[in-house]
Design goal:
four-stranded parallel beta sheet, four-stranded antiparallel beta sheet
């Protein structure tokens, strides 16, 4: 039985889908005005892993991950660039897809753009207004009255009194309470026509929180199984989603809430202000994308992920050991779930997607493969790893992947190997050893075997 740590109950719970055999999953996606950073990469990889495991477990999964293509940052960046919002967002959506594809992230079943669902958002706001949860503020924004929703704070564990402490009502904002949040922003004269929609409250655009409530209800229904996202979204975004959705529909919004941990850099939270902010594109210039995926999955999804070159180097060395075990086996992935390593792998994944323990089972299986050289064991290793989106490449391709070291491309390396073979035939072992050492210093490791000399990046 699969168990999931539910952020709502703060406990590990057996997973029981609303509809037997089917899972409906919604994940908060990217705001597309800049390149994806490692935090975005973690969200994409984590919930790709979750989706893969649910499907491997026999569930029919409908996976929705939204795109926020309208908000203050997008409007500001487009204005700075002197381009349309659509052109800006289309470009960064394409970059996002490139980065996700490199990391082995499968496309969600649905990837709704907020700007395509404004009518559904307006309908939801209208429902909230009729039920007394929404009001027109003094500045013509439509706001949600947080104190009207009795369950506010149940996801984050924050009480209204704690949130209210130290606050004051901003008269200029026109809110009835500083905790109230915006559902519909009235249009500003200086803003582009691209961000102005007709509504019962005048020209304007949706607030951020209402997007996900509207899109998830449209694509998954007003009550679904799992909602995921980064830990930073738990409050206020996900708390506000619950208030909106349950206020409007009068029923439970989501049964299981999942939140992945923060990304840290050398044990400090990653942020632009600290200067320790890395985009995926920067990281992928230095490291193979599968190494980055492996690094992300090697940590439990709820734990902090500590980024450093040392940790990425260690991940590369570990993944290299797994691929080295598979080298020489041209086998299709296949899993016997009754086999001991597979049972251990499954038990780990069924315990809140415990990828560190599942990966440990892969290493034990690789050790057995190194000992037995058994093709069925190789197929088992490749099949289990495939449930995590790992080890599906040709081992030699992975082992030789990476930037040419010290100006050595594959042809230059082959020439050096040929020179070393010639030196050994001439019994000039000093020259042969020197070539091996020079290649090693350039990050190329030679491996002599019965079939000849092969090489990999070190």
């Amino acid at each position: 039985m699969l168990k999931i740590h539910n952020s709502l109950t703060r406990s590990l719970q057996e997973f029981v889908p609303i509809e037997p055999g089917r899972v409906r999953l919604y994940v908060c996606g990217m705001t597309v005005y800049d390149y994806c950073h490692l935090g975005h990469g973690r969200v994409m990889v984590v919930f790709d892993m979750v989706t893969r495991w649910l499907r491997a477990s026999g569930y029919r999964v409908t996976y929705v991950r939204n795109i926020t293509d309208i908000d203050d940052k997008i409007i500001k960046r487009a204005a700075e660039n002197g381009e349309s919002i659509r052109r800006l967002t289309d470009r960064f959506i394409a970059f996002m897809h490139e980065d996700a594809g490199a990391l082995g992230v499968l496309r969600p079943d649905f990837e709704p753009r907020a700007t395509d669902y404004v009518p559904q958002m307006l309908d939801l706001i209208g429902r909230l207004e009729k039920k007394g949860y929404a009001y027109l503020a003094g500045n013509n924004d439509v706001c949600y009255s947080v104190r009207k929703f009795s369950g506010y704070g149940k996801l984050s564990g924050k009480s209204l009194d704690d949130l209210r402490a130290g606050e004051r009502v901003d008269v200029m904002e026109g809110k009835q309470d500083p905790l109230d949040f915006v559902l519909w922003k009235h249009a500003r004269p200086e803003e582009s026509a691209e961000v102005k929609w007709e509504s019962a409250w005048g020209l304007g655009r949706p607030g951020w929180h209402i997007e996900c409530s509207a899109m998830s209800a449209q694509l998954l229904g007003d009550h679904f199984d799992i909602h995921g996202g980064g830990q930073d979204l738990q409050f206020p975004h996900h708390e506000n989603e619950i208030a909106q959705s349950e206020g409007a529909h009068g029923n439970t919004f989501v049964n299981y809430w999942m939140h992945n941990g923060f990304v840290r850099v050398d044990n400090e939270k990653m942020s632009k202000s600290l200067g320790n902010f890395f985009t995926l594109r920067e990281i992928l210039k230095k490291y193979d994308a599968e190494v980055v995926r492996f690094f992300i999955l090697r940590a439990h999804y709820r734990s902090p992920l500590n980024y450093s070159d040392a940790h990425l180097d260690d991940a590369r060395a570990a993944l290299t050991r797994l691929y080295t075990a598979l080298k020489g086996f041209a086998v299709a992935a296949s899993v016997d779930w009754n086999e001991a390593h597979a049972q251990r792998f499954k038990a780990a994944m069924d315990e809140d997607f415990a990828t560190p323990e599942a990966i440990a089972a892969l290493f034990d299986l690789a050790n057995e493969l190194n000992r037995t050289k058994d093709a069925q064991t190789a197929a088992q290793l490749k099949g289990l790893a495939g449930a995590l989106g790992l080890l599906q490449r040709d081992p030699v391709e992975f082992l030789q992947a990476g930037p040419a070291a010290e100006g050595l491309d594959e042809a230059a390396i082959a020439a050096q190997i040929g020179a070393r073979i010639a030196a050994k035939k001439a019994k000039n072992f000093a020259a042969a050893d020197r070539i091996r050492a020079e290649l090693k210093a350039a990050g190329v490791i030679l491996e002599d075997g019965p079939g000849g000399t092969t090489w990999r990046r070190g």
